[in-house]
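Recall that a protein's primary structure is simply its ordered list of amino acids. Everything else, from secondary elements to tertiary packing, is in principle encoded there. The following example makes that idea concrete.
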Amino acid sequence: MAQLYITDMYASVKTRVMELKGFRRITIEPGQTHTVTFTLTPYDLSLLNVDMDRVVEPGDFKIMVGGMSPDFTAKDRIKDSLGYHESRGVTGTLRYDIPAAARYEFTITDISHNLTDGSDIVTVNVTNSGNLTDTGQLTMYVDGTRTGDTRHYELNPGQSKAITFTVPSPEGIGSPWKSLNFISRHSSIFHNR
């Protein structure tokens, strides 16, 4: 079995000493060779920063491929001692200089009235204009009160998704909602009637 491990050498937050990012089951007879290919994406190099945002921080990543876990010495600067010794695997360093993060933009694209039950249907378009796949959530507040379920999404860079919310009919006739607020982790959009 070939196993791929990576280590983020100098992250702004504490990270795992090493992470398994892939493996391939292979059978090799004595004296044979076999080429194994792994693909690392920016998401594979990402971490959750101090603000709990998924980002890729530019820097050095140790890449290790072998038939077992890499060797290390449990002491200060443990990441420096990680690697394969003798013929157990290969160790190298990848310098990644492109910062990456998701950047979500929100737009209310439609508000329509449902004549059947008196509710309003609101469509919010979410677009990831960043350069990293990530997840997020959007919550609706009607006149300052949280209403309905929180909607979760995961978008690749450049991808958009329409999310619909139902604003329930008002309790009494003539008392429609006055404001809508849609809140995500770092931004919000507001709509007055």
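The mean pLDDT is 90. The longest strand covers residues 145-155.
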